[in-house]
Design brief:
This protein has about 325 residues and is of the alpha/beta class. The protein has 3 domains: about 1-65, Nucleic acid-binding proteins (OB fold (Dihydrolipoamide Acetyltransferase, E2P), Beta Barrel), CATH 2.40.50.140; about 70-225, Rossmann fold; about 240-300, Ribonucleotide Reductase Protein R1, domain 1. About 25% of the residues lie in helices and about 25% in strands. The protein has helices at about 1-10, 105-115, 135-140, 160-165, 180-190, 240, 270-275, 280-300, and strands spanning about 10-20, 25-30, 35-40, 50-55, 60-65, 70-75, 80-85, 90-95, 120-125, 150, 170-175, 215, 220-225. A hairpin with a 2-residue loop joins strand 1 and strand 2 (about 25-30). It is globular and about 65 Å long. Residues about 1-10, about 195-210 and about 305-315 have low confidence and may be disordered.
Length: about 325
């Protein structure tokens, strides 16, 4: 008890490794794991947060403060915001043939990560199910052409290519349900015992991870596994900021005739000129239009923007 009292006098810096309801599990700099409650005045705490903790025993404590974040990745729909992870340096977007990637979902993930200012690596898992390289070719054409780093693996057999990407990084695993994120964690850290599951016959996948969990991989790498998801809301992004989250659009921004151009068919739009010239992929422009439509509808409903100009379409494209 005297040791606990000494710690309490000065507090400890720690990292949130998981959150379960009102309780957070944190790892201190010395490697001790504490279960903590947060002071009520604090903003919501997320996996990956760096916090100041006052221990109350050798296994419990109180979070007194959340230290400044270098990044925050989250999603937001009309009902609520859902923080995914904090203080990550890169996002690992996992894709697979089963379930087959939904191109708008992938683009929404990329938009959220670009908005957070975090690096991106696209990982194609289950390459043993893509023997004719159909998905690989599609991903390379759509995302490799944009300069995104890509790697391939079959998590049941070998994850060494991913280990290289994780070195000296704090990485977030993100993707649709059923793409094999938990299997990847199990392969990287057999002792993690992450839950895994079979993809349903409808190939929509089912959730196998229920909360974000932070793991240490070797001496210099940290990995956060996030719950699988089917939707990725972006209502926290203003419609005017969306175009800058598409990497291929950025060099063209500022070149439109109108300063407030939304790239939705206005005359003199630099993006649509580039589209006609083949310098922007038509599928990516369609994805931008659908996301913009959803943002305008959401912001208009809250009195923050005018009604959407684009008819919402279901995204049945393949990457």
């Amino acid at each position: 008890m005297p040791a606990v009292a000494a710690f309490a006098a000065k507090g400890l810096d720690a990292r949130v490794i998981a959150r379960h309801g009102q309780h957070c599990r944190v790892r201190t700099c010395s490697g001790n794991i504490l279960t903590c409650l947060a002071r009520s005045r604090l903003d919501p705490i997320v996996c990956g947060d760096r916090v100041r903790v006052t221990p109350s025993s050798t296994s419990e404590g109180v979070i007194e403060a959340v230290l400044p974040r270098s990044s925050l990745i989250y999603r937001c729909d009309r009902r609520r915001e859902k923080a995914i992870a904090a203080n990550v340096s890169q996002a690992i977007v996992v894709l697979a043939t089963a379930p087959w990637p939904n191109s708008e979902f992938v683009d929404r993930c990329l938009v959220a990560v670009e908005y957070a200012g975090v690096k991106i690596v696209l990982v194609q898992n289950k390459i043993d199910l893509d023997s004719d390289r159909t998905l690989h070719t599609a991903l390379l054409a759509r995302y490799g052409a944009l300069g995104y780093r890509m790697c391939e693996l079959c998590a049941h057999h070998d994850v060494d290519t991913l280990r290289t990407e994780l070195r000296a990084e704090t990485s977030l695993l993100i993707g649709q349900s059923g793409v094999g994120k938990s299997t990847i964690v199990n392969a990287l850290l057999p002792d993690a015992q992450a839950r895994t599951g079979e993809v349903s016959r409808s190939q929509t996948g089912r959730h196998t991870t229920t909360h974000a969990q932070l793991y240490r991989i070797g001496e210099d790498a940290t990995l956060i596994d996030s719950p699988g998801m089917h939707q990725f809301g972006l209502q926290h992004i203003a419609p005017a900021d969306l175009a800058a989250c598409f990497v291929e659009f950025r060099p063209l921004l500022g070149g439109c005739r109108f300063n407030d151009c939304r790239h939705a068919g206005e005359p003199g739009c630099a993006l649509h000129d580039a589209l006609r010239q083949g310098r922007i992929q038509r599928s990516r422009m369609r994805s931008y239009a659908r996301i913009l439509s959803s943002l305008l509808q959401s912001h208009s409903a809250s009195g923050r923007a005018e009604p959407a100009r684009h008819r919402h379409q279901e995204d049945d494209e393949q990457p």
